[in-house]
Design a protein that fits this description.
Blueprint lengths: L11 H12 L4 E11 L2 E10 L5 E11 L5 E11 L8 E9 L3 E9 L6 E16 L10 E18 L4 E19 L9 E13 L10 E11 L9 E14 L2 E12 L10 E3 L13 E3 L1 E12 L12 E13 L11 E12 L2 E10 L3 E9 L4
Antiparallel strand pairs: 1-2, 3-4, 3-20, 4-5, 5-6, 6-7, 7-8, 8-9, 9-10, 10-11, 11-12, 12-13, 13-16, 14-15, 16-17, 17-18, 18-19, 19-20
Length: about 375
Protein backbone atom coordinates (compact mmCIF):
# COMPACT_ATOMS: atom_id res chain seq x y z
CA UNK A 1 0.00 0.00 0.00
CA UNK A 2 3.05 2.28 -0.03
CA UNK A 3 3.50 4.35 -3.17
CA UNK A 4 7.08 5.42 -2.42
CA UNK A 5 9.28 4.35 -5.33
CA UNK A 6 12.81 3.00 -4.99
CA UNK A 7 15.61 5.34 -6.05
CA UNK A 8 13.52 8.50 -5.70
CA UNK A 9 13.52 11.19 -2.97
CA UNK A 10 11.30 10.44 0.03
CA UNK A 11 7.84 11.95 -0.38
CA UNK A 12 6.96 12.47 3.27
CA UNK A 13 3.46 13.86 2.63
CA UNK A 14 2.55 10.87 0.46
CA UNK A 15 4.07 8.47 2.99
CA UNK A 16 1.97 9.89 5.84
CA UNK A 17 -1.13 9.65 3.64
CA UNK A 18 -0.40 5.98 2.87
CA UNK A 19 0.21 5.15 6.53
CA UNK A 20 -3.08 6.83 7.41
CA UNK A 21 -4.84 4.58 4.89
CA UNK A 22 -3.16 1.54 6.49
CA UNK A 23 -4.40 2.63 9.92
CA UNK A 24 -7.89 2.78 8.42
CA UNK A 25 -7.81 -1.01 7.90
CA UNK A 26 -7.86 -1.42 11.71
CA UNK A 27 -5.26 -4.19 11.58
CA UNK A 28 -2.47 -2.30 13.34
CA UNK A 29 -1.99 -0.75 16.77
CA UNK A 30 0.80 1.49 15.51
CA UNK A 31 2.91 2.03 12.40
CA UNK A 32 6.28 3.74 12.71
CA UNK A 33 8.86 4.64 10.11
CA UNK A 34 12.43 5.88 9.98
CA UNK A 35 15.05 6.63 7.36
CA UNK A 36 18.07 4.37 7.84
CA UNK A 37 21.57 4.25 6.33
CA UNK A 38 23.45 1.01 5.68
CA UNK A 39 26.65 0.57 3.67
CA UNK A 40 26.33 4.08 2.27
CA UNK A 41 22.78 3.52 1.07
CA UNK A 42 19.60 5.04 2.46
CA UNK A 43 16.40 3.13 3.00
CA UNK A 44 12.97 3.38 4.56
CA UNK A 45 12.19 1.10 7.50
CA UNK A 46 8.62 0.55 8.70
CA UNK A 47 7.48 -1.21 11.85
CA UNK A 48 3.83 -2.28 11.80
CA UNK A 49 2.52 -3.89 14.98
CA UNK A 50 -0.81 -5.70 14.95
CA UNK A 51 -3.53 -4.87 17.44
CA UNK A 52 -3.24 -7.15 20.48
CA UNK A 53 -6.93 -6.76 21.22
CA UNK A 54 -7.80 -8.03 17.75
CA UNK A 55 -9.66 -6.45 14.87
CA UNK A 56 -13.26 -7.13 15.88
CA UNK A 57 -15.45 -4.08 16.49
CA UNK A 58 -18.97 -3.91 17.92
CA UNK A 59 -21.03 -0.74 17.68
CA UNK A 60 -24.41 -0.08 19.23
CA UNK A 61 -26.83 2.70 18.46
CA UNK A 62 -30.41 3.87 18.47
CA UNK A 63 -32.72 5.68 16.08
CA UNK A 64 -35.72 7.80 17.04
CA UNK A 65 -37.82 9.96 14.70
CA UNK A 66 -41.06 11.74 15.58
CA UNK A 67 -43.08 14.39 13.75
CA UNK A 68 -45.33 15.18 16.76
CA UNK A 69 -48.35 14.21 14.63
CA UNK A 70 -48.57 10.59 15.75
CA UNK A 71 -46.01 9.30 13.23
CA UNK A 72 -42.87 7.95 14.84
CA UNK A 73 -40.01 5.61 14.06
CA UNK A 74 -37.73 3.95 16.57
CA UNK A 75 -35.12 1.25 16.64
CA UNK A 76 -32.14 -0.25 18.42
CA UNK A 77 -29.30 -1.57 16.33
CA UNK A 78 -25.82 -2.95 16.34
CA UNK A 79 -23.09 -3.73 13.85
CA UNK A 80 -20.21 -6.19 14.12
CA UNK A 81 -17.10 -6.00 11.96
CA UNK A 82 -14.51 -8.79 12.00
CA UNK A 83 -11.41 -7.75 10.05
CA UNK A 84 -8.31 -9.68 8.99
CA UNK A 85 -9.92 -13.13 8.91
CA UNK A 86 -7.41 -14.52 6.40
CA UNK A 87 -4.04 -13.67 4.85
CA UNK A 88 -5.54 -11.24 2.33
CA UNK A 89 -7.58 -9.42 4.95
CA UNK A 90 -11.07 -10.84 4.50
CA UNK A 91 -13.61 -8.88 6.55
CA UNK A 92 -17.10 -9.90 7.69
CA UNK A 93 -19.86 -7.37 8.45
CA UNK A 94 -23.06 -8.09 10.35
CA UNK A 95 -25.87 -5.68 11.18
CA UNK A 96 -29.11 -6.10 13.10
CA UNK A 97 -31.92 -3.68 13.97
CA UNK A 98 -35.10 -4.11 15.98
CA UNK A 99 -38.00 -1.68 16.13
CA UNK A 100 -40.34 -0.29 13.51
CA UNK A 101 -37.87 -1.17 10.74
CA UNK A 102 -36.28 -4.54 11.63
CA UNK A 103 -33.25 -5.46 9.58
CA UNK A 104 -30.66 -8.25 9.30
CA UNK A 105 -27.68 -7.91 6.99
CA UNK A 106 -24.48 -9.88 6.38
CA UNK A 107 -21.60 -9.12 4.00
CA UNK A 108 -18.12 -10.55 3.44
CA UNK A 109 -15.44 -8.51 1.71
CA UNK A 110 -12.69 -10.72 0.35
CA UNK A 111 -9.65 -8.98 -1.24
CA UNK A 112 -8.16 -10.84 -4.20
CA UNK A 113 -4.63 -9.37 -4.19
CA UNK A 114 -2.09 -8.28 -1.59
CA UNK A 115 -2.51 -4.61 -2.58
CA UNK A 116 -6.22 -4.82 -1.60
CA UNK A 117 -7.23 -3.33 -4.93
CA UNK A 118 -9.66 -6.00 -6.14
CA UNK A 119 -12.25 -7.79 -4.02
CA UNK A 120 -15.48 -9.76 -4.15
CA UNK A 121 -18.44 -9.15 -1.84
CA UNK A 122 -21.30 -11.61 -1.31
CA UNK A 123 -24.18 -10.19 0.74
CA UNK A 124 -27.60 -11.11 2.10
CA UNK A 125 -30.21 -8.77 3.58
CA UNK A 126 -33.69 -8.84 5.05
CA UNK A 127 -35.66 -5.80 6.15
CA UNK A 128 -39.24 -4.80 6.85
CA UNK A 129 -40.82 -1.36 6.81
CA UNK A 130 -44.19 0.33 6.79
CA UNK A 131 -45.38 2.15 3.69
CA UNK A 132 -47.93 4.90 4.26
CA UNK A 133 -49.96 5.96 1.22
CA UNK A 134 -51.07 9.60 1.28
CA UNK A 135 -53.28 11.74 -0.89
CA UNK A 136 -51.09 14.31 -2.67
CA UNK A 137 -53.11 17.21 -1.28
CA UNK A 138 -53.64 15.83 2.23
CA UNK A 139 -50.66 15.18 4.49
CA UNK A 140 -52.38 14.98 7.87
CA UNK A 141 -53.30 11.29 7.78
CA UNK A 142 -52.35 8.36 5.55
CA UNK A 143 -55.06 6.77 3.41
CA UNK A 144 -53.62 3.30 3.91
CA UNK A 145 -50.72 1.56 5.59
CA UNK A 146 -48.89 -1.48 4.20
CA UNK A 147 -46.05 -3.58 5.55
CA UNK A 148 -43.23 -4.49 3.16
CA UNK A 149 -40.86 -7.41 3.69
CA UNK A 150 -37.86 -7.52 1.36
CA UNK A 151 -35.21 -10.24 0.92
CA UNK A 152 -32.10 -9.65 -1.13
CA UNK A 153 -29.03 -11.69 -2.15
CA UNK A 154 -26.15 -10.42 -4.24
CA UNK A 155 -22.56 -10.83 -5.36
CA UNK A 156 -20.23 -8.02 -6.44
CA UNK A 157 -16.77 -7.80 -8.00
CA UNK A 158 -15.08 -4.47 -7.33
CA UNK A 159 -11.90 -2.45 -7.46
CA UNK A 160 -10.83 0.22 -5.00
CA UNK A 161 -9.45 3.51 -6.33
CA UNK A 162 -6.85 5.88 -4.96
CA UNK A 163 -6.15 4.77 -1.39
CA UNK A 164 -9.71 3.54 -0.76
CA UNK A 165 -11.33 6.88 -1.59
CA UNK A 166 -13.34 5.46 -4.46
CA UNK A 167 -14.43 2.26 -6.14
CA UNK A 168 -16.21 0.80 -9.11
CA UNK A 169 -18.12 -2.48 -9.02
CA UNK A 170 -20.17 -4.87 -11.10
CA UNK A 171 -22.77 -6.97 -9.35
CA UNK A 172 -25.79 -9.17 -9.67
CA UNK A 173 -28.72 -8.99 -7.24
CA UNK A 174 -31.83 -11.10 -6.64
CA UNK A 175 -34.74 -9.59 -4.66
CA UNK A 176 -38.23 -10.60 -3.57
CA UNK A 177 -40.75 -8.41 -1.77
CA UNK A 178 -44.16 -8.88 -0.17
CA UNK A 179 -46.61 -6.13 0.78
CA UNK A 180 -49.36 -6.76 3.33
CA UNK A 181 -52.32 -4.47 4.01
CA UNK A 182 -52.33 -3.20 7.60
CA UNK A 183 -54.95 -0.45 8.01
CA UNK A 184 -56.91 2.30 6.24
CA UNK A 185 -58.52 2.01 2.82
CA UNK A 186 -57.28 -1.00 0.88
CA UNK A 187 -55.87 0.08 -2.52
CA UNK A 188 -54.32 -3.09 -3.93
CA UNK A 189 -54.70 -1.70 -7.46
CA UNK A 190 -51.43 0.22 -7.00
CA UNK A 191 -49.71 -1.97 -4.38
CA UNK A 192 -48.42 -5.43 -5.31
CA UNK A 193 -45.75 -8.00 -4.47
CA UNK A 194 -42.67 -8.12 -6.65
CA UNK A 195 -39.84 -10.33 -7.88
CA UNK A 196 -36.72 -8.64 -9.13
CA UNK A 197 -33.24 -9.38 -10.33
CA UNK A 198 -30.66 -7.22 -12.03
CA UNK A 199 -27.07 -6.68 -13.11
CA UNK A 200 -25.51 -3.40 -11.98
CA UNK A 201 -22.53 -1.19 -12.68
CA UNK A 202 -21.71 1.03 -9.71
CA UNK A 203 -19.20 3.75 -8.93
CA UNK A 204 -18.45 5.93 -5.95
CA UNK A 205 -16.13 8.42 -4.29
CA UNK A 206 -15.96 9.64 -0.69
CA UNK A 207 -13.69 12.29 0.84
CA UNK A 208 -16.15 13.78 3.37
CA UNK A 209 -14.50 14.40 6.72
CA UNK A 210 -17.70 13.65 8.68
CA UNK A 211 -21.03 11.97 7.88
CA UNK A 212 -23.30 13.95 10.21
CA UNK A 213 -21.90 17.51 9.93
CA UNK A 214 -19.20 17.52 7.23
CA UNK A 215 -16.87 20.47 6.84
CA UNK A 216 -15.02 19.58 3.63
CA UNK A 217 -15.01 16.98 0.90
CA UNK A 218 -17.41 15.33 -1.51
CA UNK A 219 -19.28 12.06 -1.65
CA UNK A 220 -21.15 10.58 -4.58
CA UNK A 221 -22.49 7.17 -5.51
CA UNK A 222 -24.16 6.03 -8.69
CA UNK A 223 -25.55 2.77 -10.01
CA UNK A 224 -26.86 1.72 -13.41
CA UNK A 225 -29.10 -1.33 -13.03
CA UNK A 226 -30.20 -3.69 -15.81
CA UNK A 227 -33.30 -5.55 -14.57
CA UNK A 228 -33.85 -8.76 -16.52
CA UNK A 229 -36.47 -11.48 -16.70
CA UNK A 230 -33.72 -14.12 -16.81
CA UNK A 231 -32.96 -13.06 -13.21
CA UNK A 232 -36.67 -13.38 -12.30
CA UNK A 233 -37.52 -9.69 -12.70
CA UNK A 234 -41.14 -8.99 -13.59
CA UNK A 235 -40.05 -7.13 -16.75
CA UNK A 236 -36.92 -5.92 -18.57
CA UNK A 237 -35.95 -2.31 -17.83
CA UNK A 238 -33.08 -0.06 -16.72
CA UNK A 239 -32.82 2.00 -13.56
CA UNK A 240 -30.32 4.72 -12.62
CA UNK A 241 -29.64 6.09 -9.12
CA UNK A 242 -27.33 8.88 -8.01
CA UNK A 243 -26.74 10.70 -4.75
CA UNK A 244 -24.02 13.30 -4.36
CA UNK A 245 -22.81 15.73 -1.69
CA UNK A 246 -20.33 18.60 -1.95
CA UNK A 247 -19.30 20.36 1.29
CA UNK A 248 -17.20 23.51 1.68
CA UNK A 249 -16.51 25.59 4.81
CA UNK A 250 -15.40 29.07 5.74
CA UNK A 251 -14.62 29.62 9.40
CA UNK A 252 -17.68 28.37 11.33
CA UNK A 253 -19.94 28.21 8.28
CA UNK A 254 -20.50 25.21 6.01
CA UNK A 255 -22.41 25.04 2.72
CA UNK A 256 -23.53 21.72 1.24
CA UNK A 257 -24.92 21.11 -2.25
CA UNK A 258 -26.68 17.77 -2.71
CA UNK A 259 -28.69 15.81 -5.26
CA UNK A 260 -30.66 12.57 -5.09
CA UNK A 261 -31.98 10.89 -8.25
CA UNK A 262 -33.79 7.63 -9.05
CA UNK A 263 -34.99 7.29 -12.66
CA UNK A 264 -36.18 4.32 -14.76
CA UNK A 265 -36.69 3.92 -18.50
CA UNK A 266 -40.24 2.64 -17.87
CA UNK A 267 -43.25 4.40 -16.36
CA UNK A 268 -45.09 1.37 -14.94
CA UNK A 269 -45.23 1.30 -11.14
CA UNK A 270 -42.79 -1.24 -9.69
CA UNK A 271 -42.34 -1.32 -5.92
CA UNK A 272 -38.91 -2.91 -6.36
CA UNK A 273 -37.59 0.42 -7.65
CA UNK A 274 -40.20 2.99 -6.60
CA UNK A 275 -38.66 5.80 -4.58
CA UNK A 276 -40.18 7.73 -1.64
CA UNK A 277 -39.86 11.41 -0.81
CA UNK A 278 -40.87 13.42 2.23
CA UNK A 279 -39.32 14.20 5.59
CA UNK A 280 -36.39 16.21 6.92
CA UNK A 281 -34.17 17.43 4.04
CA UNK A 282 -36.37 15.50 1.59
CA UNK A 283 -39.12 18.09 1.07
CA UNK A 284 -39.05 18.91 4.75
CA UNK A 285 -42.66 20.09 5.17
CA UNK A 286 -44.11 16.73 4.08
CA UNK A 287 -44.67 13.67 6.24
CA UNK A 288 -41.91 11.05 6.15
CA UNK A 289 -41.94 9.07 2.86
CA UNK A 290 -45.45 10.34 2.12
CA UNK A 291 -45.05 10.38 -1.69
CA UNK A 292 -43.94 7.47 -3.88
CA UNK A 293 -43.14 7.44 -7.58
CA UNK A 294 -41.26 5.53 -10.26
CA UNK A 295 -38.99 8.55 -10.81
CA UNK A 296 -37.45 10.87 -8.22
CA UNK A 297 -35.32 14.00 -8.54
CA UNK A 298 -34.30 16.14 -5.56
CA UNK A 299 -31.73 18.91 -5.23
CA UNK A 300 -31.01 20.88 -2.07
CA UNK A 301 -28.60 23.29 -0.47
CA UNK A 302 -27.89 23.20 3.25
CA UNK A 303 -26.05 25.82 5.26
CA UNK A 304 -25.16 25.45 8.92
CA UNK A 305 -22.81 27.00 11.46
CA UNK A 306 -21.30 25.68 14.65
CA UNK A 307 -22.59 27.54 17.69
CA UNK A 308 -20.30 28.96 20.34
CA UNK A 309 -19.70 27.81 23.89
CA UNK A 310 -22.82 29.68 25.08
CA UNK A 311 -25.19 27.41 23.12
CA UNK A 312 -28.23 25.78 24.71
CA UNK A 313 -26.52 22.40 25.14
CA UNK A 314 -23.69 21.55 27.57
CA UNK A 315 -20.19 22.66 26.68
CA UNK A 316 -18.31 19.84 24.94
CA UNK A 317 -21.29 18.77 22.81
CA UNK A 318 -20.84 20.35 19.34
CA UNK A 319 -24.07 22.11 18.37
CA UNK A 320 -25.14 23.61 15.05
CA UNK A 321 -27.87 25.82 13.60
CA UNK A 322 -28.79 25.88 9.94
CA UNK A 323 -31.37 25.96 7.19
CA UNK A 324 -32.09 24.14 3.91
CA UNK A 325 -33.66 24.93 0.55
CA UNK A 326 -35.06 21.95 -1.38
CA UNK A 327 -36.63 21.40 -4.80
CA UNK A 328 -37.91 18.13 -6.24
CA UNK A 329 -40.64 15.50 -6.24
CA UNK A 330 -41.59 12.01 -7.47
CA UNK A 331 -43.37 11.24 -10.75
CA UNK A 332 -44.91 8.20 -12.44
CA UNK A 333 -44.02 9.44 -15.93
CA UNK A 334 -40.67 10.74 -17.18
CA UNK A 335 -42.48 13.29 -19.35
CA UNK A 336 -43.82 14.94 -16.18
CA UNK A 337 -40.35 15.60 -14.74
CA UNK A 338 -39.75 19.34 -14.89
CA UNK A 339 -39.20 22.34 -12.64
CA UNK A 340 -42.81 23.55 -12.83
CA UNK A 341 -44.28 20.26 -11.58
CA UNK A 342 -41.78 19.95 -8.72
CA UNK A 343 -42.25 21.07 -5.11
CA UNK A 344 -40.27 23.72 -3.25
CA UNK A 345 -39.54 23.18 0.45
CA UNK A 346 -37.18 24.26 3.17
CA UNK A 347 -36.35 23.91 6.84
CA UNK A 348 -34.60 25.48 9.79
CA UNK A 349 -32.94 23.17 12.27
CA UNK A 350 -30.75 22.70 15.32
CA UNK A 351 -28.27 19.86 15.38
CA UNK A 352 -25.85 18.29 17.81
CA UNK A 353 -23.25 15.53 17.99
CA UNK A 354 -24.48 13.63 21.01
CA UNK A 355 -22.93 10.49 22.57
CA UNK A 356 -25.80 8.53 20.95
CA UNK A 357 -25.17 9.95 17.49
CA UNK A 358 -26.30 13.00 15.51
CA UNK A 359 -29.52 14.67 16.64
CA UNK A 360 -31.71 17.13 14.72
CA UNK A 361 -34.76 19.20 15.65
CA UNK A 362 -36.29 20.77 12.54
CA UNK A 363 -39.24 22.79 11.35
CA UNK A 364 -40.05 22.21 7.70
CA UNK A 365 -42.29 23.93 5.16
CA UNK A 366 -43.40 22.81 1.71
CA UNK A 367 -45.56 24.22 -1.06
CA UNK A 368 -49.28 23.79 -0.49
CA UNK A 369 -49.18 24.98 3.11
CA UNK A 370 -47.63 21.78 4.46
CA UNK A 371 -45.54 22.07 7.64
CA UNK A 372 -43.85 19.50 9.86
CA UNK A 373 -41.79 19.42 13.05
CA UNK A 374 -39.34 16.55 13.30
CA UNK A 375 -37.03 15.20 15.99
CA UNK A 376 -34.40 12.75 14.84
CA UNK A 377 -31.77 10.96 16.92
CA UNK A 378 -29.76 8.12 15.55
CA UNK A 379 -26.53 6.48 14.53
CA UNK A 380 -26.14 5.55 10.89
CA UNK A 381 -24.07 2.40 10.35
CA UNK A 382 -21.99 2.58 7.17
Amino acid sequence: MLRQKMGEPLDKEQLLHDISAMYGLDYYKHIRYQVVEENGRHGLLLEARRRREGSTFLRMGMRVSDDFEGNSEYGLGGSLRMAGLNELGGTAYFRGDIGTQPRIEARFVQPLDEHLNYFIEPQARYYAEKIDVYDASQQDEALARYRRKDRQFGLAFARQLYAQKGEWRVSTVRRRGNLKFMSGHKIDAIVDDYDDGYYALGFGWDTLDDLAFPQEGNRWRGSWEFHRKDLSADRNFQHFTLDATLARSWRRFTVMLETDMSVSDIDERNFATMAPIGGFLSLSGLALDSRWGQHKVLVRSVMFARLGAQSILPVGVPTYAGFSLEQGDVWDSRREINFNSSTFAGSVFLGAKTPLGPAYLSYGMAEGGHTAVNLFLGQLFR
